[in-house]
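User: Can you help me understand a structure? I only have the sequence.
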Amino acid sequence: MRVAILTSYEFSVLGGAERLILDLARALDAEVVVPHFNENILSLYDPGREVSFRSLDTPLPAEPARQIAGMRLFRRTSLEYDFFICIDDIAARYLVHPVPHLYYILTPRRALYDMYYHFLAQKSLGGQIAYIPGLALARFSDRRFVRRYVKNIACISHTVRNRIQKVYLREAAVLYPPVHTDRYTWKPSEGYWLSLGRVDKWKRVQLQVAAFSQMPEKKLVVVGRVYPGFEDLVKKAPPNVLFYHTRTEEELRDLLSRCEGFITTAIDEDFGITPLEAMASGKPVVATREGGYQETVVDGVSGRLVAPEPNAIQDAIHEVGQDPDRFRDECRQRAELFDYREFAVKARDLLSRSLL
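Assistant: Let's start by predicting it. Here is the structure, written out as C-alpha cells:
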C-alpha cells in the first residue's frame, strides 16, 4: 500500500514537527509530499535520505498569503496513493478529494481558537480591527471543512485531543511523537541548565531569563532562533545567560548529555519533545505545569512542574540542582515509554484502524 504524508512544512528550519513527520514516514514507509523543501536542512535530519520526499515545486509565500496559497495548492493537486495522512490544516485541504485518509493534527490553529485573545493582544488597535473579521471567517471555514470532509482524526497529545473536542466536537485518537532513546547518553553535569527552542512569544524564554537573573551562581544556555521583537531580551540578558543559534543534532545531544537540567516554559505546549530528549539523556526537567508537559514530566520523579513565574522556577532549579543525578534512572525510564519503537507499532495500528 502506498501511503502519502501531506504537509505544508517545507523543511526550511529545524523543529520538532519536521522530525515527527520523518519518524511517521519511516514507521509507515510513506512518502512525504510538500510544496517545496530545503535540501540542506533536510540533510541535517535525514543524512542518509531514508525517507522519500516529493516536492510539488511550489514554494509558498510568507503569511498571511501563505495559508491561502497553500490551501489552493493542495485542493488542486492530484496524487495517486492508496492512503493519505494530512499533518496540518493547509495540507488537509486535499481531502476535498474523497480518499482514504487520517488527519493527524498537531493542534488546531491556535490563533483561531485557544490563543485567539493572546494573538490579538499582540496587535495594534488597527491590526485588531482588521484581524477580527478575518479570523472569524477563517474559524467558520475551518470548522465547516472538518465537518464536511474529515473522517478520521488523530493528534499528538491529550492536550490537543481536548482542544479538538472543544473546537470540532469530534473524538481523536492520540499518537504521541517519539524520542529515539538510543541516540541519547548521560554524562556528568558541567553545571549549566539548557533551554532548546525558538525565542518568541509562545516559548516565554523571558521567564527563564528573569529567573536566572536572580541566580548569578547558575548558568543558562539557550539554543534557538531569536525571532524579531526579542533581540533586546538577548542584548540585555545577564552574564550567566548565554544565547546560541541553532546547532546540529549531534551538538544538541551533546549539550543535553552534559547539562545539569533542562528548562522549558512554552504557553500550554501542544506536546513538547525536548523534555523527553532531556529525560532520555537522564537529565531532570523543570517545566511549567500546563499543556503537554503534564503528560511527559512526572512531578518529583523526572523533574518539577511549576507555575509560570520566575520565583517558582528559581525554587525548582535550586531544589533539583541539589542532586540532579538522583533523577537519572527515572528520567530514562520515563522517556522509554515514548520510544520510537513503541511509536512505530502504534502508528501502524492506527493506520490499520483508519482503513476500516
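Now, to help you interpret it: DSSP finds 14 helices and 13 strands in the chain. The first strand starts at residue 3 and ends at 6. Let me know which part you'd like to focus on.
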